[in-house]
Design goal:
Layout (H helix, E strand, L loop, with lengths): L1 H14 L8 H28 L3 E6 L2 E5 L1 H7 L3 H4 L11 H18 L1 E9 L5 E10 L8 E8 L1 H51 L4 H31 L8 E4 H16 L4 E7 L6 E4 L1 H18 L3 E10 L13 E10 L6 H4 L23 H11 L3 E6 L5 E10 L23 E5 L3 H13 L3 E5 L2 H10 L4 E4 L8 H9 L12 E5 L4 H10 L3 E4 L4 H16 L4
Parallel strand pairs: 7-9, 13-14, 13-15, 15-16, 16-17
Antiparallel strand pairs: 1-2, 1-5, 3-4, 4-5, 6-8, 9-10, 10-12, 11-12
Length: 562
Amino acid sequence: MRDTILKGNATKLAGHPVTGDPNVRPRQEDRDASQSRLDQALREMEIIFDNALVGMALSHGGHIRKINRRGADILGYPPERLVGLDAVSLFPSPTDYEQFVRKARQALADSDRYVAECRLLGPRGRLLTVRLQAKVVADAPTDETIIWVFDDITEQKRLEEALHTSKQAAESACEAKSQLLANMSHELRTPLNGILGMAQLLLDSGVTGETREYLAIIRQSANVLLHVMGDLLDLSNVEAGRLSVEAREFDLRAELGPLLRNFAAQSQLRPFTFSHRIDPRLPERIIGDPDRTRQICTHLLGNAFKFTRKGRVTASLDLDDGTGSQAESVAPDRIRLRVRVTDTGVGIGPEQQQAIFEPFGIGENYLTKKYSGAGLGLTIAKRLANLMGGDIGLESAPGQGSTFTLTLEYGLPQGKQPAATQPAPEPESPSRSLRILLAEDEAVNRLFTERLLRKLGHRVVSASDGQEALELLGRAPFDLVLMDIQMPRLNGLEATRRIRSGQVTGASSTMPVVALTAYAMESDRVQGLEAGMDEYVAKPFDTQDLIQAMDRVMARVDGPRG
């Protein structure tokens, strides 16, 4: 019975094999198709892996299990040599490898991803820098299986280092240039102060005729040299980023009115006319930097005067309300000032219009040039305008004159604007006689300054260095100290600090100190004020500038400071 059943079943099975079952055959075909698709996908993944534009590698337990061609090319070895290799042999030292593994494990434990740059060792000891990313393979049996993606950035790093080195060299050269200009300024200003001072003393002594004419020429020539030196320093400060812009409330008409009147007076001796206009819509008071504004306008007007031989020069100060088709709107609490200087001078061709804003650009052949100047005024003006958030535009044609347009924005004071104030009259003589201590190491400047101060009615005692000045301060009372900066034994900055810290027995720590120095850069002024100096007057100085600085200091002493 059992045999019959088995035989019958075998017959049935023989008559109906498994592969012949209509339900079984499609399932097998599906598996075959799936396997085919899987094989195709694996082949495509292999193609992508082997032809990737970045290096790719699979590691397990610190050993390379698989690496693509780009990765092998980066490391400099054939793929078959890298497979199975312990990764420690790719690092410059075992210590480097240990540090790398420690950081990588920590990063992968924290965020499942590691991104870094590291140095690797290629054939014949060649060092290369790679940027890499790592990620733990999610479906791997252990977390020791990691996929790495990396690329060679050795050349990029070399270029970055070269750029950094070049940048440092350029900065060092710029700093050296600035220091050279500062030293030149000091060395030139010191004798210039003596020349100008002595010439002025002789002019004030009542000389006449040719002698007076010669002295006037000496003084004029020295002033030209001083102007060039000042332009060089201004340019150096702008390029080095040492110029700062103030934001304080001031009266625009009071600041620029005297400047315009001064140029009007100069035009009386020139073969052209000068006129100026200030827009009545301009507010009485604005917030900005009056000194830089005046400096820019001085350069623009001076340039127009220099290159105009006939005709006219005009200057207009207008409120740019932003209503023009090309104008940009202005915030409600701000205004835009437009200063336009127009002349009928020589004009400038299109090919030279950009050059005149570059340092030493003079707009003509230097061997045949007819106009004096170092070519710095417009450069400084434009860079100062840019520093203040504005700009200078130019419209010109040869033989038809030029129009320079300055645009600057200013803030408006809050609340009701006060009435315009007139500038205080310049004092012609001191309000009272002062006992002044003059600390000056240069004999000619000491002599000139002594004579000038005595002519103004002051009593003067001189010291040739800071140490002697402190000794004199301790022995007798003084109302004011005029302090040079660079002096032997003890410089003016340190001498002032000792006064302020109360180290000078017998002298008040609030003793008024006015710097009187040939160090004229902005950083020098800041350094002097930080040391405790009350005012800062640069040599060569104008007599009125010195008088005003002394009066300001003494006003503070007689007022709240006293």
